[in-house]
Amino acid sequence: MICPSYLVATMSNKEVKTALKSARDAIRNKEYKEALKHCKAVLKQEKNNYNAWVFIGLAAAELEQPDQSKGAYKKAIELEPNQLLAWQGLANLYEKSNQTDVKGDLADVYQKLLELYESGDKQKWFDVCNKLVELYHQEKKYLEVAETWQKLIQKKQEEGAEKAELHQLWKKMTQLLKDSTQNQDNKTEQSLLTAFEHAVNSAETVPSEDHQNLYKEFIQCLSKFPHEAARLEKACNDMMALYPTVSYPLEVLCLHFVQSGTLSEEALHCFSRLLEMDASSGPGIIGFGIKCFQEKKYKEAVKSLTEGLKKTSQCPAAWHYLAEAQRKIHRYRDAVLSCNQALEALGIPEGPSLRWKNLILQLKAEALINIADADAAEAAIKALEQIVDASSDPVVLAIRGQAYLIKGLMDQASEISQELLLSHPDLAQSHALEGFIHYFQKNYEQAERSFLNAIERRAETAEYHQYLGLTYWFMSDETKKDKGKAVAQFLKAAKLDSYLGSVFRYLGNYYRDIAGDKSRACGCYKKAFELDGTDEESGTAAVDLSVELGDTDTALSILNEVTEKASVGTAKWAWLHRGLYYLRTGQPSQAVADLQAALRADPKDSNCWESLGEAYLSRGSYSTALKSFRKASELNPELVYSIYKAAAVEQILGKYDNAIATYQQILKKAEDYVPALKGLGECHLMLARSALDNYLDRKAVDYIEQALEFFARATKHRPDVSCLWKLLGDTCTSVHVISPTKVNVQVLGFLMGKNAGKQMLKKSEMLRLGERCYGTALKLMPLPSIWCDLGINYYRQAEHLTAAGTDVNETNELLAKSLQCLKKAVRLDSKNHLYWNALGVVASCSAIGNYALAQHSFIKSVQAEQINVVAWTNLGVLYLATGNIEPAHEAFKIAQSLEPSYLLCWIGQALIAETVGSYDTMDLFRHTTELSMHNEGAKGYAHWVCSTLQDKSNRNTELYLYNIVQMNAIPAAQVVLSKYTERNPDDASAFTMLGYLNEYLHLKRQAADAYERAASLLKNSEDTEKYNTAMQNYGRSLCALGQCDKAIEVYTSIPLTEFDGIVGIALAYFKKGLLQESIKAYEKALPVAESEQDKAHILTALAIIEYKQNKLDAAKALLFKCSLKEPSTESLTALCTLGLVKQDATLATAALKELLKHEKGDDRIYERCLLASAVYALQGRNVGVQREVSRAIHSNPDNPALWSLLSRLVPLYASQKAKGGAVAGNVAHALDVNHGKEVLLNIAVNQLAAGCHMLEDEKNNPLKNIQKAIRLCPDNPAAWAVLMAACHAENTVVCLNDTQPKRTDLEMTLVSTVSAKTGENNLPHNYVQTLEDWCLCQAITSLEESGKLSEAEALCTKGLKSRPEHPALFLLLRQVQCKQLLQSHKELPDNILEELHKTVMTSSTSVAAWQANVSNEHWPSLVQEATTEALKLSFCPLAALLQALLQYNRKMGARETRRMLERVVYQPGNPETIVSVARWYLLQHLYAKDDYELIDVLIENAKANGDVRALQLNETLSSSA
Fold this sequence. Notes:
By secondary structure, the chain is mainly alpha-helical. Helix content is 77%, strand content 1%. The protein is built from 82 helices and two strands.
């Protein structure tokens, strides 16, 4: 701050003084603008007033006017340059400024202030000096910093400053100049080093931590200046003397020696001393590595240098040594990486560093050349281009020539070679380059001369000897085999460079391929692979030879070593070889892992995928094995083995069809490929066995024939393969379970000893062919399993002969052979439980009967295999056959515990239960059929089902309900028995039971076929009673089928003495229409009938016949006769029905009451309900009809027939509840889909009656449901009639919604369809006539409403021609004619009105007649009268609507109008189409009355019912209102 008092003192006159004083006061009070005014006043008086200009500079600066302030200060300085005030003000101004361009001016100001303060205030001089140094430091003007700071220190020294203060100043100077090392300014550098020396030497406390750190900084600084080596060494030695335990100076010194490239004794001593002091020191380890390198211990050198550089990475020379060592051991890629690290650590080289750069680049190029890759060669050329003065160095030129050679640029390489040979003929590299060129050009003789010249000049280079050896190796076979040539050079190369792996590989090739010394070759390969772990050829050869020599441990150790080091996607050969080794030694999981690793390296190796598939297959991973084999075949379609294995895996997985297709694919390429033929045969054999298990015998025969063909083709090509003959035997023997009538198999002629063609074989011939095939297999390979198969074949032949009833001696001979074969198998392999079991089966057969041997065999089988369910079951059968129930039960129980799902032990338990009379017998037999299909189980279960069904007294017992109803026994038994009869077509009892079950299932045709087969089997039998029974069954089934003529023929072919037979033929006569014969037969049956119930049934039948002859009184008398004695439900039902037919309500009601007394259960609930409903309808009690069915449903809610009946009756007798009728139909359909044909029709009718349509529900509407019904039953004419009604309803709805009808012009088509369907079906005439009449009227109505009046009139006229007295058609004709006249706007003539009146009166009970509306204003009374009469007949929504509209027409705004329209709108059950029209007019009425409250109610109703037209009208009316 400038002192104002001084300013005042300098003024000369009073005014100036006063003004300056005022300016000073204003500045003190911070009134800077006022101060400026006073100063300007002073300047007017005295322009060169120094103080005024200073005041102006000060005030302007405070007012943030820097330019004015700067100008004022400069003006003051100009006036008095040696005055301090202006300089101080200018300095303050520059210090506050943020502008960078004032830094230089500020430095000048500080320099001037130093001059002015030098002789005055010393402290201010020091302050300004500090500021100046700081300013220079910010500007990185280190030389000025050094000079200025040195002046400051000099001043301090002159003033006698203490040593500690001077130490701090020198230390501060080192801090200020430590960043100057990058500027390469020698003067600054010397200043910095001088400052460090003074700072180090001036420290008071020595040794100390601060002094130690300062010394470290000093040495670190010196290490940055290569030319200060002596100073660096001295500083390091001085620090080591002061701090002998600190390793830092020794580390720096070691790095200095490394970087200098001169490894003297002193350097080696430093390395050793450092490692003694700190074994983990990076520079020490690097030094040790360099020492190892000099001693040619290259691997140790690489290890030490790598470890040291991890700790001390910024040492280019160490990286160079590492790269050189790596190159020596031929790790070229690592050497290149090390060179890159060296270049990175080197930074921007200058001076000595430039030499290092050239050396590193040359080394990098040499390493890249050794990689022998085109890309590497290109990189080598780029590296060589960076070498300074590379063109003048012949060695570099030689390297460039090699790079060109590797890139294939032969001309450039040759040019360099010729140039070198001319300019440097004594240089070994010149001749070597020439040799390389000749070698790559395969000019081996010239290459030999060149390499010999190179060796002559530089014999210690192993590479030259190697390539000379290679030249001899490829020159000719003589030079390859000549030990003095190739091998000698390889050995010399190996001696000179023991790390040259490729030399050892070729030595291995020599010893393996030429000398035949596998042991020595293996050693060479191992050595080569040890030296170069990437040499796959050597590694593979070493592993293969080790395995061949039996040294698997060595092979595995090599592979383990490689795979442990390998990264993902590398070392494919090692993974592959180890995977194959594991596969061979039975270790599939390890093999899978290794082969997967191999595939990561090469995913497109088809052989590797194939091996992986084998590994997965061995491990049991069949699905993945299949994928692997398929992948292999995709990569290489020529790999037939992979395709074959894929098919084999599919075969294992049970995908036989896929496997067959794959095998066929192989045969297209190689039609004689035996494994594929064998696989095809096996697949067809397995399919045959599967078909046999499912009792599909004919399909099984086809498969067997195909299997035989493929096996025969295979054996034709390879008759020496035992397994093919065995498979042929298995295939032939597999026919043993099939019926002889179904076995007709074609086999190739050569199997039968014939040269060509095919032979057709029967079952016995097939079994004998199997015997011969087993015999051939035994000749080729006498295995115990084949002896066992042959024994079983003999046993099957004996079974067949026994079933056929042929010579017993031949059968016994076969069984003896079977026994001998099985004993042979047991002797050969006594530990095989299967052989013992087979021996037991044969020994236990009835023809041999050696039960002791059988028991012994089964026990031996169990001993051989503890979990042996088959042997235990067979032992149980043996005990059961010999009458030992308890042991049999125990044996079966053990078998069940071993395998609960084994079928035969359950059959054994069922047979025991049957023997002892257990209640569980049927349940056990049922369980056997659930487990699987078997003859014994199937027939046993069917027998028990039929026995239970024949007992009529057990229908309400829990046992019956469970065994028959709940277990769905009848269809289950029918299915298994059908399979049984397929396999056993000669079992008459089975066919009888099958027919009986088919009758229960209403399978009439199948029942007739079964009974016919039973009768044909029994025809020639001695048991005539069974035959007669079978014929009666057959006749009954034919009668049920409607084949009455044939039934009568069957009945008349046998004597009819029993009640069932006589009644059967009587029924046949009745159905045939031979009523008199039927009466005679029934009368003949009367005395034979044993019970009054049977007699009542006969009298009922006779009554029905009398009714058929229109003898109603006689029929009535017979039925009364039944009712008087012991009335049966059938007779009462017939009597009630007779009353209904005669329209005799009294008779029908009385009969119904009597019927209801006798029937109280739920058995015939549907029939009783139907009769009761019909009686109510006859009495005119429509509500009672619906209520009767509803009551029945309430008691039996799970009866679908009752729900269906309700759905059918509601639209007829309770149309107001049509929606409920639709729901009833849906319930019936949900309970039993078999009612779908009828129920869907009823649902559609109910929905039509309820006014439902597609706009309400797109999925559930009359049209959709009737379409479904037609799809289910297209022959039902009623369904087509309902479809016509549904289409008409939908067209009406779309007309009401102002959209275009979609279902037009269908009327005539549907009428024709209904007529066609009624003609095709045998329907009652009255029903047909009514249906056709209704359809005709509906079609006319549709045509009329669509405006096609002429077509409607024509259709009416056509209908009246066929039925001239039809009142409905006549009425429609009059309506159409009146409508045509009304549309012409003419008055109706009196005669036309009279005709219309007559027509209506003739149909006075028809609602439609009274609705014949004439919409002419002159005839409102006629409309009123017609609709009133219609409403009297029954409630009619349409008539109510017409009356409401008539009222609306008379007086729109009247309250009565609203009341009548509301009755139509809000009345439940009214059709939506009628309600929509009423809603339309009611809305207009309410808007006319402005009754918005009722409008809101009506609109809510419209929204709830989806009335779009009403909503649109509301929008229109509300907007206009």
